[in-house]
Write a structure and sequence with these properties.
Blueprint (H helix, E strand, L loop, with lengths): L13 E5 L2 E4 L4 E4 L2 H4 L8 H13 L10 H12 L7 E5 L2 H16 L4 E4 L8 H6 L15 E4 L13 H15 L6 E4 L2 E2 L5 E2 L4 H11 L3 E5 L24 E4 L10 E5 L1 H4 L15 H16 L2 H22 L3 E7 L2 E6 L10 H14 L1 E2 L1 E3 L5 E4 L7 H16 L2
Parallel strand pairs: 3-15, 5-6, 5-7, 7-10, 10-11
Antiparallel strand pairs: 1-2, 2-3, 4-12, 8-9, 11-12, 13-14, 14-17, 16-17
Helix pairs in contact: 2-9, 3-9, 6-7, 10-12, 11-12
This protein binds 4'-deoxy-4'-aminopyridoxal-5'-phosphate (PMP).
Length: about 400
């Protein structure tokens, strides 16, 4: 059985992709405003990434990490250069779940504590241990998971009880540590804009206060940048920088490889030291082909000034979506940054009752118009707009005009 979060998209058979456009088997073109769940960063089939992959594939595919390979080392160096502070050690794995698994293990080894805190409405993966971090019933199987994981109140400015006051939500985190843990914890996981959770931006001031509390309890702060990294939020290269914090561990996946299976864990030399107690091995993690793709992505992002582009197009989109909110009562909230936006649909603006059926209907109507957006949030009532970063002003206008059209017919 597939989840209702994604089943409608499954009815499309997509056979080709070119930058921000996808094509189905009949040759019909769709504007892609979801990038395969934010997995395509610089554009479907971006020529520079394709060239890098083809070149490396012809030369050498893989020997596993038993031998050195300059492509992996060069890429790790380029990635570390883009990180702030002392975040200089990079491990490559194949998926976001694996990256978060590894971060969790490192935090436990480094601190000698076991308890981990994540946020409600978070998504951190589907492996048995990351499923425990994830806080959405949709993604939880009835198996043992999350031993030692606690979920703090989500600093959600739209639905949370404390509105946009980040410090009040941080008080709940302090209370959680006092009541549910031995007072010492291994780590705290967070996204900076919750992706699967419906582009929920954490209330301002939350992360600095939360990091203080976590560090006083001996814990590490782990930023999951799987969806928010690489300039997508426009204002900064990394999502956590939008709240002025520097994590101890950062996890990366999805857009890092523009669609190739690549993910990374970045941390400080001191923390990385804990993995030298034993061998660490991952057959495909850090293979030359995916490393070549990841390196090409970094170069394209710089060359094409994609962070600035995300800021400009994102501001325009936000502005137009807010105007649309004035016109259509069904839009309860418009939020996000850069090209990481959410439009939450409600039956009533006072009660904020999720307009789940309407969201599904509009989602289908948009698809019929040739526009693909994402659908998500705890109640499945949020349009998630996270296109490939080459999404243009004209694409933004086409998307909003399309939304206006289908909403006017509701
Ligand atoms: N973290 C976040 C924020 C994600 O959005 C996802 C995937 N949706 C993951 C982790 C897990 O990544 P993967 O599916 O590659 O395991």
């Amino acid at each position: 059985m597939v989840s209702d979060v994604i089943d409608v998209v499954f009815q499309l058979n997509i056979v080709e992709g070119k930058m921000q456009y996808l094509f189905d088997e009949s040759g019909r073109r769709y504007l892609d405003a979801f990038a395969g769940i934010v997995t395509v960063s610089v554009g479907h089939g971006h020529p520079a990434v394709v060239d890098a992959v083809v070149k490396q594939t012809k030369l050498l595919q893989h020997t596993t990490t038993i031998y050195l390979h300059h492509a992996i080392a060069n890429y790790a160096e380029a990635l570390a250069q883009r990180m702030p502070g002392n975040l200089k050690v990079v491990y490559f794995v194949n998926s976001g779940s694996e990256a978060n698994d590894m971060a969790m293990m490192m935090a436990r080894l480094y601190t000698g504590s076991f308890d981990i805190v994540a946020l409600r409405n978070a998504y951190h993966g589907m492996s048995p241990s990351t499923m425990g971090l994830t806080a959405h019933s949709t993604w939880k199987y009835n198996v043992a998971q999350g031993f030692g994981v606690h979920h703090a109140m989500n600093p959600d400015p739209y639905r949370g009880p404390f509105g946009a006051d980040g410090k009040l939500y941080a008080n709940d985190l302090a209370n959680l540590l006092e009541s549910a843990t031995p007072g010492r914890i291994a780590g705290f996981f967070h996204e900076t804009i919750q992706g699967v959770g419906g582009a929920v931006e954490l209330a301002p001031g939350y992360l600095p206060a939360a990091y203080d509390i976590v560090r006083k309890a001996g814990g590490l702060c782990i930023a999951d940048e799987v969806q928010t990294g690489f300039g997508r939020t426009g204002s900064n290269y990394w999502g956590f920088q939008n709240q002025g914090v520097t994590p101890d561990i950062v996890t990366l996946a999805k857009g890092i490889g523009n669609g190739l299976p690549l993910a990374a864990v970045v941390t400080t030399p001191e923390i990385a030291q804990v993995l030298s107690q034993r061998l660490h091995f991952n057959t495909y993690g850090g293979n030359p082909v995916c490393s070549a793709a990841g390196h090409a992505v970094l170069e394209v992002l710089d060359k094409e000034k994609r962070q600035e582009h995300c800021a400009t197009v994102g501001d325009h989109l936000l502005h137009r979506l807010r105007a649309l909110q004035e016109k259509h009562d069904i839009i309860g909230n418009v939020r996000g940054r850069g090209l990481m936006l959410g439009v939450e649909l409600v039956k009533d603006r006072q009660t904020k009752t999720p307009a789940k059926e309407e969201t599904l209907h509009l989602f289908e109507q948009l698809k019929d118009l040739g526009i693909l957006v994402g659908k998500g949030g705890l109640h499945g009532n949020v349009f998630r707009i996270k296109p490939p970063m080459c999404f243009s002003m004209e694409d933004a206008d086409f998307l909003v005009d399309g939304m206006d059209h289908v909403m006017s017919k509701l």
